[in-house]
Amino acid sequence: SHEHLFQYGKHLYIQQAAVFIEDAIQYRSINHRVDARSLRWYRWYYSRLCQGLGIIIAIILGLAFIEEPSSLTYTSDIRYRPPPWKPPCGLTEGIEIICLCTLTVDVAVKSYLIGWDELRKTRWLIGYVLVIALSVIDWALSLSMQCTETIRVRRILRPFFLLQNSSLMKKTLKCLKRTLPEINSENNKEWEIYFSNLPKALNSLLVLLTTANNPDVMIPAYSRNRGFSIFFIIFSAIGKLTFLIKAYWYIGLWATYSQSVTKYFIQNITVWMTNNILFVYILSYPCFYISFCQEHTVLVLDSHKTVTERNDCLEVINCVFILLYLMEMSLKIFAHGVRGYLSYRSNLYDGLITLCLLFLQIFIFGLYKLPFCRGNSDTQTFVSLWDILRLVNMLIIFRCLRIISDIKLMALVASTLVDIVKNLRAFAGILLVVYYVFAILGMWLFQGAIIPPQQSNSIVKSVIINKSLVCGSYEQLEYWPNNFDDFASSLVLLYDIMLVNNWHVFIDVYSRFTTEWSILYFISWWIISAVMWVNLFMALILENFTYRWDRSNTFTVTDVERTAYQTTVQLIFR
């Protein structure tokens, strides 16, 4: 009947509108089938149940760690590294073919949903089909050669799956494609002053670059166990966020100085303020700075004392804090009930840390008895009392982080960090792709190129040999764990070069052991990682913080949230 057709058409229009809104929010293309059956398939395909494709992509990318040459060794130091585990032929290939079959089903469903005409116009899907086909062909060749081939072309093609699965990454690459030609088209002759000839160009590059000697700090621990590199990488990543502090200091000092000095003086003092901001901050609080150093000196001296020589006052204070935390948690549970207490994330955070503190304190009592009641001080345990107390102090400090949401400035910084994690996933994904491709290329070009020295049984002889080497060379600095012999060590080496830390040492050693043309590989990686991505990441951090700072000082909190949401929606439909 006409009424039935009218209701059916109305329901279809509502479905189409809902799908188009979802496409806009998720940065997806709206060029797909819009009939009722296709829309049902479309919504089913993009449901949470079926969007487990990221797990398949993570598995196929992670195969590089266990494929030959395997990264499953405790160290990457070529002097001490044991023979790596070799997976049996067909193990990784079996996992890979399952992933490739899943990706084939994915591309078939996508092709049906968008239609044949749209498929021929979509380069990403055409590339998707070609990459899967080439991967299957290379996979078949590997099995026919009984996994003895040295170069697997499909390994360098795998990051394409990650790019193709993210609409935001594809849009980011499109923006870069539009931006880079504009940068290259700049007609600026200033470079001729600094790069008029080869010697002056080399001197200018030497002045431009910096070597923060990050590998020198990491190598002793990294040489013992490759897992220690994770700590240094995470620390460096968190350290980059200190640019937020610089932005906050700059904005605060700018507001203070702008009220008391003239416009001419402001223009001349801006450079001085930005270059000496940390020095000014320390001089403003000399007493706090000196007491901070004295406190850490006392802690360092106290860490070298035995259990019998140590004073128990600090431990008693820790016990008092833990009892207060337990009392607070008990009162909250009594007042709100168990469900009410667990309904707040802050309570879950406090409760988890309090229980950990209680467990550690009971553990201390079990090993070292109660304070002022020491048993046998010569008892050997698998963990020292000093390490346990440091962990307790860390947890107490972590519990204090809950006040961040109650302080406006700290909440602003914390929200900026959360926004960075949410909004920079596309940039991080593309950086992961670049890392993956360059690591595979580095293994192809430089695997096994560096020959380890002969092991010496005499420590004195090894020290003499080390002193006879060229100062600042790869051998003298003992950078042996940094190599391209497996996938994991390749990633760490590329990370060191990205931070511009002694990367000339790596260029020198690979030029000596391979060919001088190897410098092209390292320069390409430096330009893409250090020049493009690191600077872009820093710019986005400062821009995000400055934007939220301006909004928070102009409007109320509700206005800021509403404005940010409206701006985001407008950018989606732009």
Automatic annotation (TrEMBL):
The chain crosses the membrane at residues 45-66, 125-145, 228-251, 271-292, 313-331, 351-370, 424-446, 487-507, 519-542. GO terms for cellular component: lysosomal membrane. Keywords: Membrane, Transmembrane, Transmembrane helix. Residues 86-183, 297-547 form the Ion transport domain. It holds the Pfam family Ion_trans. It is a multi-pass membrane protein. InterPro entries: Ion_trans_dom, TPC2, Volt_channel_dom_sf. GO terms for molecular function: intracellularly phosphatidylinositol-3,5-bisphosphate-gated monatomic cation channel activity; ligand-gated sodium channel activity; voltage-gated channel activity. It is found in: Membrane. Gene3D superfamilies: 1.10.287.70, Voltage-gated potassium channels. Chain C. GO terms for biological process: calcium-mediated signaling; endocytosis involved in viral entry into host cell. This is Ion transport domain-containing protein. It comes from Denticeps clupeoides (denticle herring). The gene is tpcn2.
